Automatic annotation (TrEMBL):
Domain Calcineurin-like phosphoesterase, first and last residues per copy: 1-218
Record-stated family: Belongs to the SbcD family.
Assembly information from the UniProt record: Heterodimer of SbcC and SbcD.
Domain Nuclease SbcCD subunit D C-terminal, first and last residues per copy: 267-352
Function: SbcCD cleaves DNA hairpin structures. These structures can inhibit DNA replication and are intermediates in certain DNA recombination reactions. The complex acts as a 3'->5' double strand exonuclease that can open hairpins. It also has a 5' single-strand endonuclease activity.
GO molecular function ontology, one term from the record: exonuclease activity
Protein name: Nuclease SbcCD subunit D
Record keyword Hydrolase present: yes
Gene name of the encoded protein: sbcD
CDD domains listed in its UniProt record: MPP_Mre11_N
Record InterPro entries: Calcineurin-like_PHP (IPR004843), DNA_Repair-Maintenance_Comp (IPR050535), Metallo-depent_PP-like (IPR029052), Mre11_N (IPR041796), SbcD (IPR004593), SbcD_C (IPR026843)
One Pfam match: Metallophos
Organism: Streptomyces meridianus
Bilayer-spanning residue ranges: none
Keywords noted in UniProt: DNA recombination, DNA replication, Endonuclease, Exonuclease, Hydrolase, Nuclease
Amino acid sequence: MRILHTSDWHLGRSFHRVNMLPAQAAFIDHLVETVRSRRVDAVLVAGDVYDRAVPPLAAVELYDDALHRLADLGVPTVMISGNHDSARRLGVGAGLFERAGIHLRTDPAGCSTPVVLADDHGDVVLYGLPYLEPALAREKLGAARVSHTAVLSAAMDRVRADLADRPADTRSVVLAHAFVSGGAGSDSERDITVGGVAAVPPEVFDGVDYAALGHLHGCQSITGRVRYSGSPLAYSFSEAGHRKSMWLVELGPDGSLDAERVDCPVPRRLVRLQGRLEDLLADPALECHQESWVEATLTDPARPAEPMARLTRRFPHVLNLRFAPERPPEDRSSSYAGRVGGRTDEQIAEDFVGHVRGGAGPDEQERAVLREVLESVRVQDIVKEIAR
C-alpha cells in the first residue's frame, strides 16, 4: 500500500508580513497531483491543518477545496487535529465527510477506532491520535498522570489492544501530533510544554508498522518507522536549511517499509545574511540572493542610518532585520571605580556610548545632546537644593 504522509499545513499563516495563502494553494495543487501521478492509496495529514483555532475564511476555503479534490480522486484521507487546530471545529461534519472518504480524527476517545483499508495482501488499519493535551485527555484515556508521555502511552495501549484482536497479518499505521525525543525543532512551532515535559520517547509507538508524526517542521526520521514529514512550507528563518517534502511510504505485504521524500514547491528561497551593512551591500557573492527572502543580521559597532531602506534596494524581499554589534574585548583588569575615577560626567556618558557601540563614541551632535541633558539635570538638582 502506498501512503502519502504530510502534516503542519498551517493554512492561514503568514511569513513575517507575507501572505502565504498563494504558496499554500500551490502546495495543495502539488499534493493532489502527487496523489494522482504516484497512484497513492491513502493520504495522511498529521495535524495543524490550520494555523489557529479560528482560521480566516480564505484558509477555510482552501481546506474545503483540498478535501473536495482528494475526494474526487477517490483516495481515502485520514486527518487529525494538531495543537494549533480547534479539535471541535475541525471535527464538525466528520460523519458526513467519512462517506466521501475523508476521515477526521479529532476526539481522543476514538483513537482506537481505525480507518480500515485493504489491498491485495490484506487489511491496513490507520489509527488517528489527535493532539492530546494532558490535562484534557487524561480522564478520557485513563492515563496514570498528567503528562504527554502518559496520555500518549494510554492512547497507544488502546491502539495495541484493538490491533491484538485483528488477524496477525494486519498492517498498522498511527498518526500522532507530538514532540518525540530525538526530533529537531525550529522557531515556528508552538511550545507544548504547558502540559508537562513535552518530549515523549519513540518507544511509545512500538507495535505498529509506521508512525506518521506531525508538530515538528523539519522532515526527519526518528527511527526507520517513526517519522516527521515536516511542514510543506517554511514558516521561520530557522528553517532556511530545511528541504521541504512529504514522505511517500510503501508498506509491504509483511509490514516492510520503503520511504521516499517527495519535494514540495518552494515559493522563494530563504537566506540568513550576517555582516556589516556596507559589506552586505557591496559583496558580489550575494547577488544570488536578490530574489530570496532575507533575514539580515548587522554586525556594525554603531547602528547605521536607514539600514532597512538601504538593504531593500539590493534585496527587495528582505523581511527581517537584526542587530548583533561587534564588541571589542572588555578590560576586566580594573574596577569600575578605577575606570571612571577623575572623569567628568560628560566623559563618563561619552565612554558609555562608545562601550555600547563597540568603540564608536558620539559625534558632535550627540555630544551636544548629552551636554544639554546633563546640564538640565544639574539645574534641577540646584533648584531642589534651594527649595530645601
